[in-house]
Amino acid sequence: MMFSKRIACIGAGYVGGPTMAVIAMKCPQYKVTVVDISEARIKAWQTDNLPIFEPGLLDVVKAARGRNLFFSTDIDAAIRESEVIFVSVNTPTKTFGEGAGKAADLQYWEKVAREIVRESRSPKIVVEKSTLPVKTAQTMENILNANDRKIHFEVISNPEFLAEGTAVQDLLEPDRVLIGSHETESGLRARQEIVDIYAKWVPRDRILTSNVWSAELSKLVANAFLAQRISSINSISALCEKTDANILEVARAVGMDSRIGNRFLNASVGFGGSCFRKDILNLVYICESYGLHEVAQYWESVLEMNEFQETRFVRAMIREMFNTIVGKRIALFGFAFKANTSDTRESPAIYIAKKLSREQARVVISDPKALDNARIDLAELEGITYQEDPYQAAVGAHAVAIMTEWDLYRTLEWEKIFDVMEKPAFLFDGRNIVDHERLFKIGFNVYPLGRPPLKHF
Ligand code: NAD
Ligand code: UGA
Whose CA is nearest to atom 6 of ligand 1? Predict the structure, then answer.
């Protein structure tokens, strides 16, 4: 079969895999090859046991795999044959040297850029799909265009806005697709090539174009704004607990103002995920490096509020359980950082489990999809047990704490759970997803977030 364009994607993770699967499904005329240094990941993409859990993803992959979607570890070959190269490698927070703890670690990105230069024999469009500090394209162009073969590389910023758990839906019907380029002749030509890919299924008015710096910065800012909403509502949940106001009622009243909007106003035990924290730290670092200390502090406070929310949740658990949890079995319901994913990166449950374990509680972790990752995250701790079945996890427990808003926890037979628990039985709802009055009537002492507790003593 003759393909009209060959696209490579370097990095077969949570972003590269789903994004390319959707492009391949929607554009059978393009050949899409996804490559990674991790053999295990690539092997898994070639089976029906995909390396990530994402609703609907297997169907999309199966629609295109072997037809025009390929997974491979031969990175060099993919670079050589493709006209367009998306790069979606990880860009974690730097853990060493200058900027440690805040700046983005760009070593993986730079390695890829050098590999692209080494292998290329023809001009390429290199697309930044990873989330990167504003101005990265400049550095990348300097590396890419410093080649003695006179090959021209055009760098495009096309940040990804998908959320895990809804990735397929987000990719099929994105709020917007953002494509930033230089406003030079070759930049505009490259921009149009990328627009043409998305225009195969995304309405044209949802495809935004901009200069490359605006695109890079908009990604960091979008994540910062989303996280800021959660920290805002979480800060108010603490105030509600002191004043007998109800956070659900407050969020509803505030969110119905159409200028504010009702989404992302769910108080929680804290936000997790691989990106919010790292991207805000990155934004903070960038602001500091330009001498904008007040701006840096403003955004850093979003993270401080998140840490406060996690800390005060555990403190409340210990306080309410008579100030000691030594030897008490405590079941965490949910370990993923949100529902419908197996991803546990930066999950608030990691912090909570560690803190409870240090207080010498006997922690049992339950989750329908994330136990494998939980075992890795908590490997250093002794005495943690893992039990997929929530009914089993509750046996002999003094407390259940809901960490993830999995639907399954809304519909449990809570009477059964109450029966097998130690008494008094405690329920800490870190997501406000169960019917608190009903559980109180069953006999639980219930601690919602941002609402008065319902206690039998
Ligand atoms: P990930 O860790 O799941 O995937 C990255 C992949 O890149 C890994 O499989 C790794 O093996 C591979 N890789 C690293 N160096 C490589 C190299 N030199 N050659 C080939 N492969 C290499 O990360 P992710 O969650 O997919 O995130 C990737 C980027 O996308 C990050 O910048 C992130 O901020 C951004 N992002 C993530 C999400 C999300 O929901 N996870 C959403 C939007 C944007
Ligand atoms: C987030 C953004 O929503 C995506 O647009 C972005 O592309 C992505 O980060 C990224 O750059 O990685 P994601 O982290 O997958 O997506 O998931 P979210 O739905 O944003 O949830 C993040 C965290 O906030 C979760 O722990 C979730 O439980 C929590 N959350 C979310 C709340 O506590 N309250 C809310 O109202 C919403």
Answer: 11
